[in-house]
Amino acid sequence: xxxxxxxxxxxxxxxxxxxxxxxxxxxxxxxxxxxxxxxxxxxxxxxxxxxxxxxxxxxxxxxxxxxxxxxxxxxxxxxxxxxxxxxxxxxxxxxxxxxxxxxxxxxxxxxxxxxxxxxxxxxxxxxxxxxxxxxxxxxxxxxxxxxxxxxxxxxxxxxxxxxxxxxxxxxxxxxxxxxxxxxxxxxxxxxxxxxxxxxxxxxxxxxxxxxxxxxxxxxxxxxxxxxxxxxxxxxxxxxxxxxxxxxxxxxxxxxxxxxxxxxxxxxxxxxxxxxxxxxxxxxxxxxxxxxxxxxxxxxxxxxxxxxxxxxxxxxxxxxxxxxxxxxxxxxxxxxxxxxxxxxxxxxxxxxxxxxxxxxxxxxxxxxxxxxxxxxxxxxxxxxxxxxxxxxxxxxxxxxxxxxxxxxxx
Length: 409
Hints:
This protein is α/β, with parallel strands linked by helices. The chain folds into two domains: 3-277, 4-Layer Sandwich (Purple Acid Phosphatase, chain A, domain 2), CATH 3.60.21; 282-406, no CATH class. Helices cover 26% and strands 21% of the residues. The protein has eight helices and 16 strands. It has helices at residues 22-45, 65-76, 188-191, 295-303, 323-340, 358-365, 369-380, 386-406; strands at residues 3-8, 50-53, 84-86, 114-116, 130-134, 162-168, 170-171, 183-184, 196-200, 206-209, 215-219, 258-264, 272-277, 282-289, 311-321, 346-354. The strands form four sheets. Strands 4-3-2-1-12-13 form a six-stranded mixed sheet, with helices on one face. α7 runs antiparallel to α8 (386-406). The longest helix has 24 residues, at 22-45. The chain starts with a strand and ends with a helix. The mean pLDDT is 89.
């Protein structure tokens, strides 16, 4: 009998969003709860047997009672169709007086769906043919491999349960990782005889192959993004990792929220893994060079896109345009980005230059080698051949941009 489950991690509820205006900060924070609702819908749609949360449900232990109760309700409510198994991560480790020591997580309930796995012991849920090997963290940083204890529990000859590891830390894929970042052996799934090792801590979805070629180890990625892809921490929600290499590209999300949908047909069979997008917001950083382009087409592109209100857009423009086009950037395109997209979206047009008149162009180019290029292009711009004239006019704008950028600032 096959099993099917969802693997998520790094929810970071209570994340302090700091790099946007107040309305945008609230929207970004709210999206993290809405993404859990999406996770519940995926659990219903795909009829999964259970959900795994591989650490960092909360951003830290100072989160409010309201946030804690709301998270509990989302996991425990009637809309969640299956059990949810959670381990604490390095942002919300098991410490005295921490979030897991407080209501509602200590509340006794007759039919509790949500189970916080607090001990490094084999857990066999009733009515499910699985053995979960949870690796809850008790410190922000540690030099110990949180999965090491699983070696004491090899698969028995008559053991027909699916063996699922659940851990939070850095898979030891390179020698330069910080030693205190809960390093996990890269061959853990093979070494411990696991059918699947569900990991949290790195914020993008990643998969790793075992010796038999099957993908048995995976990071789910964060369920809701917190930065623009390809951008540094200055283009994020303002979140800071407790990991020493938290700013490393491998750790960061890629602008989308994800979870892994996993199906395993029988113990020992290769998992079938599908990465699902469950994030509420999509963070998009885009660049457009307007030189020689139709601004009307650019405006139409961004005005007609679907899902604008759930796209957090950072649009950066460059190039050379005529004065009329430059005015439309401010009067039309900026209004579209700032009013039709998610709060916090922004347009950056500081690098857009207004096409110069002849005297400005000669002054900017100067008397060097570019002046000879300028003269030749100006001659070609007077030709009667429309195609050649268009190329020359475009080249003049490029020449101006190059000369302007090379000027001492």
